Every structure is written in structure tokens, then in C-alpha cells.
Predict the structure.
Amino acid sequence: MALRWLNAVLAVSAWLLAGSAFAALPPEVSRAFFAAQIPISAVGAWVQEIGAARPVFSQQPARPMNPASTMKLVTTFAALELLGPDYRWRTEAYAGGPVIDGVLEGDLLLKGYGDPKITIEQFQALVAALRATGLKTIRGDLVLDRSYFALAAHDPGAFDGEPLKPYNVGPDALLINFKSVRFVFAPNADGDAVDIHAEPELGSVALRGVPRTVAGDCGDWKAALEASFVNHADNAAAYFGGRYPVACGEREWYVALLDHSHYALAMFRRYWSEAGGSFAGGVRDGRVPAAAKPLTTLQSPPLYDVVRDINKLSNNVMARQLFLTLATSEYPPPATTAHASAAVRRWLGTHKLAFPELVLDNGSGLSRHERISARSMAQLLIAADASKVRSDYVSSLAVAATDGTVRRRFQDEQIADQAFLKTGSLEAVRALAGYVLGPTGRRFVVACFVNHPNAAGSQQALDLLVEHVYAIAAGATTR
């Protein structure tokens, strides 16, 4: 580590003596891209010290590039300022008929406002609050008011042909538990069979098959399970009939099943029954009528907490929910992606930020269409550093060698805990953007995008870039 640090400092010193303040990428970073068979023409970058008039160096700074998940930096900064760090989403429950002695003679209505984080525990809290009103029996249907978002039909397999991956779940005004089931696998105490359980256990999702335990390395344990899934709107089945290496210990597999409405129905049936309630109805979409009686309201965690999940864990579904919510800061509901995009652009104008190349699709970066330049991303980060929401914004980013998507990177480097970063990863795209802090208080913004078929091999070059910036912040001086 000491030798690598010394080499980095020497390289920085040589580069600073040889070049101007507005230079191309450092030679060792360029060489790392070359070694990964990535031409420099496929890279966009901008590095600037906060408070400085000019960048330290740049590479194709104005080129519109796919930023992958670093686009979440735009969405989350806009949200913290437009909605406020303490903003909370609501999910409301109404009685569609009279409640007499704990019996609802009519439908139970749930109205969603786009909460990105209704987990199993939160849904159970909603059910418990309903039971606490004295309600026990519902003699109508479960009616879902999802009208707060106006959405086009969503094809979960359109992006990458993986319709059951939770990250491909479409946004919904009444999104519950990311519409996903967590399957947990573990050898039993004797090691001669595999215990499997689903969370949540839903009556409309069947679990079949008994994998046999085998010796050997864990390897590609999912492929070894020979899993198959049958997924319909109102019912699904998961079959695991292959092998499971004992060396794997406990593993988990998340799968998105059912449609939004029937997932909500299955969740409600499960937890309403568990809470001692009675319900035999079906599910349908509808609107809460003016005469409906309010029963209870579930509030989400505050926005600053949600933003941490979005950026540290790069949660695409939550980012899409948040992006749509931004529409309601400027326009009356229902929220649309066009209104969300317009709201973000108007907000950028309040910061005197003109990003003519910016293309917003869903605000999460899980898109083949979204575009921004490295210079624009860096300017956004500089504006965030001067914002009243700076603390909540920066603390939402993954910390080098500590947590989030960079917890395994920079482990043995001086920069550990000194960089706050957002990463991005798609097929043919890698990206990194955030802040690098020096030990004497100097602060730099860095943004780098790689758009090339070999982008998956660019991590070493991206990490070298961040380490190079830290070396400047720690000891070298710019001209």
C-alpha cells in the first residue's frame, strides 16, 4: 500500500509539473483504459476542486453519455430541494361502507401516493392500525386507488429480457414490497436436505421441488437449482429441483411475481388473516369516493432516509417512484414522467444550470436513453455542495471501502472513507461520480462515464482516477 501511495504521489507531481490545469486524463488512468481495450474516445470525465474556477482535468466533458445509475444523483438532489428532506409519502385506508360492530359492509379502499418503501414490516403496521380501529370483518373487496400516477403499460422484460428481476419492477402509486418474494435456501441441521422458505409466504405463490444437497464449491448455485418460475397476474409457482452445495450455507434469491394488484391482494389476505381479521373478497382498481370514511394512514420514512437507500444501494425501483413524485411538486396529479422531467429542468434553472444535452427517461439510470455530460454532472455536484441539503445529499452516497456499492473497493488505500461516490453499471456502461475529500479539507468533485462494449473492464481505471484525485487533495497542488 505504501509503495502504491508513493507511486501515486510521484505520478501526480510529475503530471502537475508537465501539464496545465485543464489537462487530459492522467497517463496512468489512460493506460488502464487502454489495457482494458477501451479507447479514450469512449470516456467522458471532469474533475474540479470545489471553489476553483477551472477543472483540474477533463476528457470529452460536454459529450452526452449514458450515466447509468449515477443519474440518481440528479433525481435525489432535485427531490431533497423540491420536496424537502422530511417529506413523507402517505398510504390511506378508507371504508367504502358502514362499519358496524367491527364489520365493514362494503369495500376496503387503499389509496397510494407513490411510497417507494412499503416493506413487509410497514404493510403489517398498516394492517395493525386497521385492526386497532376495531375493524375485523370485511364483506366487500379490496379496492386499490392507484390513480396518483398515470403510467403507460410496463413491460418488465423490455430492458434486458429479465422480467422477474426486482430491479425491472415498474413504478406504481401503490407499490408494496417491490412486488417481490425472497426465497431463502439453507442446508438443514443434518446437511442431507435443503430447507426453503418464502418471504412473504403468499397463498397465490406455490413453492415446489426439493433440491438435493451436494458437496463441492458453491459456485453458480442459482443455475444448479434448475429453477423455473410460472408467473401469471393472479398466481405464480416457483420450482427448485436441482442441486444445492452444502458449502453455500444460507443464500437468498429475490423474484418479482404476480402483478401489482394481485400482489397487494395476496399480501393483504396473508397479514389480515394473521392479525385475526376476516376477508373473502377479491381485488379491483378504483377511486376513493368522496363519501368514503377515512380509517388510517401509513406514513413512509422521511425522504432523507429513502434517498440513502436509493444512492447507497442503487435501488432503481425506489428512484423511479421518487422521480414520478417530483412531478407533483410542479403539476397536479396524476404524475407523469413528462411532468417529472419538466419539473427537474425547471429546478435546474433555479440553480442557473443549463444542461442542453440532458435526457431524462425514468430518473433511475436503468435506461438506454438517459444522457448527461461529465461536466454537467460535476456542475450538479458543485451546486449540491452549496445547497442547504448538502449534508443529507452527501451522506446518501456510498463511502469508499465502507458501505454501499463501493464497500469492497479501495480497501487498502489511503482514500478509504474519504470518497463519497455513486456508481453506475449497465451493459456497455460504467460510471462513477461524487466527492473526494483531502486530509486538509480540500474537496473535489469527480465524474467519469465509460460507454463502450468493454466498459465492464474499466473498474481499475475508474478507481485509479479517484485515487489520483485524492493524491492531489492530499499533497499536490494544482497550477
Observations:
- Residues 8-21 have pLDDT under 50 and may be disordered.
